Amino acid sequence: MTVTEAMNLALIASPATLHRKLDQLREAGFIEFVFEGKNRRTKFLIPTDSASKYFEKMGKAMTSALKA
Predict the structure, then answer these.
(1) Cα separation of 31 and 50, whole Å?
(2) Domain segments of the chain: what residues?
(3) Could you tell me the fold of the domain covering 3-67?
(4) What is the pTM of this model?
(5) 29: left (phi > 0), else alpha (psi -120 to 50), else beta?
(6) How many angstroms separate the CA atoms of 60 and 22, rounded?
(7) Mean pLDDT for all residues in the chain
(8) Residue pLDDT, tens place only, 1-21
(9) Are 31 and 25 spatial neighbours (Cβ–Cβ below 8 Å)?
(10) Which residues of 20-36 are buried (b: 16+ CB within 10 A; e: fewer)?
């Protein structure tokens, strides 16, 4: 997903709110903005290893909670 595509998710929140949340996720180390190829205008949102580990941990916690 590109930053522009994320910013167009008006059903979720306003563009300003989405931009702020993307910055918070980047600062927390959960996503990176990456350019691909020679086009420096299109930034892609890429989850980091920290994000993958976090979601794996949360998935295990949810599975455990459902079994209880």
Answers:
(1) 9
(2) 3-67
(3) Arc Repressor Mutant, subunit A (1.10.10)
(4) 0.77
(5) left
(6) 25
(7) 92
(8) 998 899 888 899 998 999 999
(9) yes
(10) eebeebeeeebbeeeee
